[in-house]
Amino acid sequence: MPREHGAWGILLIPFATAVGIAGTWNLQVALLLISVMCFYVARTSFLKQDTTWTLFLLAGSAMCLAPLLGVWRLWWLAALGAAAAPLAFRKTGRGVAAQLIAVAGLTLTAPAAWYAATGNLDRHAWLLWGLNFLYFAGGAFYVRMHVAAAVQRKPFETVAEKIRWGATSLAFYGGLALCVVGLAMAHLIPWLATLAFAPVVVRAAIGVGRLSSTLRIKRLGWTEVAHSVMFAVLLVLAERWA
Questions:
Q1: pTM for the model
Q2: Nearest residue to 169 via CA among 206, 131, 128, 132
Q3: Which of 7, 95, 149, 192 has the CB geometry, 3.0–4.6 Å to 238, for a possible disulfide?
Q4: pLDDT per residue rounded down to tens, the chain (242 residues)
């Protein structure tokens, strides 16, 4: 099984937001979910050079995908899979660009799930992709900030020093807040949807204030899970009530 536990959330929460907002659970969605999970676990087998499990899991993924293409004619799923495959079957680098590319690939489950649920690959599908990408990209910056602070092994002496260390994360979340408000002002998303991002924007500011050279990785991980679930629930409720 994949050891990159945070990636499970980046893979499945966008899927859940799309299905929740569409309000549809059907055979197409179920088959796509199984296909996506088989494909993702196959990635780990491939990186471990376990050919047998890689082929077995890829065969399972293809078997679930086949009726989506052949029976329901959801041809764009093949294009989305072709875009994700080169990103999946390589080891994710530790650089910012590599991690953002990985987030972009994993969150493709949002438009894929919307397409399977509704039969349409429309602006709603790509908007969901964008919102999920922005959310999880912010999480990547936030976690990197805490890991880098722990690696330096030097206590922070002033608030100014913490702000300098967290400048990238703060800048990203500031831009994120402006972007989301801009989408709401353009009537592309309901104003209620901005609340889905409010907890993590506040968390970013508090997190910088609490920066420490001691990393509690499990607590950080579970906190990220809780925030991700909260984001999904708030986004679905906002879109459903709009």
A1: 0.94
A2: 206
A3: 192
A4: 556 678 899 999 999 999 999 999 999 999 999 999 999 999 989 988 999 999 999 999 999 999 999 999 999 999 999 998 887 777 777 788 889 999 999 999 999 999 999 999 999 999 999 999 999 999 999 999 998 888 887 888 888 889 988 999 999 999 999 999 999 999 999 999 999 999 999 999 999 998 988 888 888 888 999 999 999 999 999 998 87
Cα–Cα distance measured from residue 153 to residue 69, given in angstroms and rounded to the nearest whole number:
53
For residues 208 and 90, give the distance between their C-alpha atoms in angstroms, rounded to a whole number.
32
Residue found by looking up tokens 């088959």 in the block = 31
Q: What is the 3-state secondary structure (H, E, C) of the chain?
A: CCCCHHHHHHHHHHHHHHHHHHCCCCHHHHHHHHHHHHHHHHHHHHHCCCHHHHHHHHHHHHHHHHHHHHCCCCCHHHHHHHHHHHHHCCCCCCCHHHHHHHHHHHCCHHHHHHHHHHCCCCHHHHHHHHHHHHHHHHHHHHHHHHHHHHHCCCCCCCHHHHHHHCHHHHHHHHHHHHHHHHHHHCCCCCHHHHHHCHHHHHHHHHHHHCCCCCCCHHHHHHHHHHHHHHHHHHHHHHHHHC
Q: Which residues contact 8 (CB under 8 A, 6 or more apart)?
A: 2
Q: Are 77 and 29 in contact (CB under 8 A)?
A: no
The span from the CA of 14 to the CA of 130, in Å, is 10
Q: Return the axis-axis angle of helices 198-209 and 217-241, rounded to nearest 10°.
A: 160
